[in-house]
């Protein structure tokens, strides 16, 4: 099998994790690392001694041997860097969100489609075995009819000045919510506050309503006593929780649901049955995500299906952002 040559761009907070996973892929090699910052490049140069190093993105994508780039730079740069790489005939993995607007995202999808190149945004949670378990529970209707979903993402990640909590944290939960519900929201409402950096919301509450009637809520915050990465899914038969802060019990299923026993004369009660913990593989989601990218490069699967999903996330983020701006006091 031909060894594919990959490049990691952006070696800040997240990029080195991506570079490490790309470097460990079988039948692929990390042939370039690139960062505009000389000091970062020098630091990671020692960790990836076989990769060529450059501060010039243009020099790197001009390499005819290079097959694909993985971009982990700030969101404002995603569109330009992904576009340049696609124009140079390179496959692209780009960190979430795909772009700053759906109009820009659409241009990237069209370009990738036209050139038959892979375009994959890094929605890491979609490769998490715990999320795959939730999806099975929803699709198999083990939870019954899906009623609502809510995500908590609090006290995590870098407090950013160039991106609010909706775009930075919400991109994760939204990707999971859209994946589970299988629709795009008909209505989106958001309200937030900027306690630290003026105009950059650090606490955001969102409410989404889908055409099927399913609703979703997200609590996104950098300021919170609780460190939470949790998704709760409520069906009319059972309920499930994916908690990524739990080392072992990633998914818990509650045999709990509404019922109207005859003796209550039509009054609703909550039925409580067993609580179970299904087995969830302990695989590193980032490794699975990188393996998926490699499989796409090898021609397995739809090359831009993930990009379309990423575009739907950007569309929902835009809807929520407009609501946030309308509601600003
Ligand atoms: N999937 C996840 O869980 C996850 C987690 C954190 C961050 N991210 C994403 O990763 C991306 C980067 O975030 P971060 O926190 O690592 O940012 P960061 O600011 O820490 O690092 C960005 C790096 O990119 C470099 N850079 C900027 N412009 C460049 C260019 N034109 N060419 C080459 N290098 C350039 C900077 O010098 C810096 O080293 C963002 O899209 C973010 O949303 C994803």
Mean of pLDDT: 96
* Broad shape: globular
Instruction: Please tally the helical runs, counting DSSP H or I stretches of 4 or more residues.
Output: 10
Helix vs. strand class = alpha/beta
CATH domain class of the largest domain: Alpha Beta
Keywords:
single chain; 329 residues; alpha/beta; Rossmann fold; Dihydrodipicolinate Reductase, domain 2; 2 domains; eight-stranded mixed beta sheet; six-stranded parallel beta sheet; 10 helices; 27% strand; binds nicotinamide-adenine-dinucleotide
Describe this structure in words.
With 329 residues, the chain is an alpha/beta fold. The protein has 2 domains: 4-122 and 285-303, 3-Layer(aba) Sandwich (Rossmann fold), CATH 3.40.50; 128-282, Dihydrodipicolinate Reductase, domain 2 (2-Layer Sandwich). Helix content is 35%, strand content 27%. It has helices at 15-24, 38-47, 57-61, 75-87, 102-115, 129-139, 165-168, 170-181, 285-297, 305-327, and strands at residues 4-9, 28-34, 52-54, 68-71, 91-95, 119-122, 146-154, 187-193, 203-209, 215-221, 228-235, 239-243, 251-259, 269-276. The strands form 2 sheets. The chain has an 8-stranded mixed sheet. A 6-stranded parallel sheet has the order 3-2-1-4-5-6, sandwiched between helices. The N and C termini lie far apart (59 Å). The protein binds nicotinamide-adenine-dinucleotide. Nicotinamide-adenine-dinucleotide is lined by residues 9-15, 34-37, 40, 57, 72-75, 77, 81, 95-96, 122, 124, 158.
Which helices and strands occur, and which strands form pairs?
Elements: E1 4-9, H1 15-24, E2 28-34, H2 38-47, E3 52-54, H3 57-61, E4 68-71, H4 75-87, E5 91-95, H5 102-115, E6 119-122, H6 129-139, E7 146-154, H7 165-168, H8 170-181, E8 187-193, E9 203-209, E10 215-221, E11 228-235, E12 239-243, E13 251-259, E14 269-276, H9 285-297, H10 305-327
Parallel strand pairs: 1-2, 1-4, 2-3, 4-5, 5-6, 7-10
Antiparallel strand pairs: 7-11, 8-9, 9-10, 11-12, 12-13, 13-14
The protein binds nicotinamide-adenine-dinucleotide (NAD).
């Amino acid at each position: 099998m031909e060894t594919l040559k990959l490049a990691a761009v952006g070696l800040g907070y997240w990029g080195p994790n991506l570079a490490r996973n790309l470097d460990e892929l079988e039948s692929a090699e990390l042939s370039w690392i690139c960062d505009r910052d000389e000091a970062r490049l020098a630091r990671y140069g020692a960790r990836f001694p076989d990769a060529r190093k450059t501060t010039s993105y243009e020099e790197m994508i001009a390499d005819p041997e290079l097959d694909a780039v993985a971009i982990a730079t700030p969101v404002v740069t995603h569109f330009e860097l992904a576009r340049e790489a696609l124009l140079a005939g390179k496959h692209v993995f780009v960190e979430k969100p795909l772009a700053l607007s759906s109009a820009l995202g659409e241009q990237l999808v069209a370009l990738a489609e036209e050139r038959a190149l892979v375009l994959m945004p890094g929605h890491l949670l979609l490769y998490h075995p715990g999320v795959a378990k939730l999806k099975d529970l929803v699709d198999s209707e083990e939870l019954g009819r899906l009623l609502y979903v809510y995500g908590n993402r609090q006290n995590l990640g870098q407090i950013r000045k160039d991106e609010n909590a909706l775009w930075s944290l919400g991109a994760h939960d939204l990707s999971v919510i859209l994946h589970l519900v299988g629709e795009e929201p008909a209505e989106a409402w958001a309200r937030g506050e900027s306690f630290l950096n003026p105009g950059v919301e650090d606490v955001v509450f969102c409410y989404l309503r889908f055409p099927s009637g399913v609703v979703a809520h997200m609590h996104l915050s950098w300021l919170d006593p609780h460190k939470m990465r949790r998704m709760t899914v409520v069906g009319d038969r059972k309920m499930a929780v994916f908690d990524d802060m739990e080392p072992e019990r990633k998914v818990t299923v509650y045999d709990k649901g509404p019922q109207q026993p005859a003796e209550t004369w039509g009054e609703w009660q909550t039925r409580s049955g067993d609580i179970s913990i299904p087995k969830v593989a302990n695989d590193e989601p980032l490794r699975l995500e990188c393996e998926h990218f490699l499989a796409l490069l090898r021609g397995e699967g739809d090359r831009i299906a993930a990009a379309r999903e990423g575009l739907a996330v950007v569309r929902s983020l835009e809807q929520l952002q407009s609501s946030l701006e309308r509601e600003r006091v």
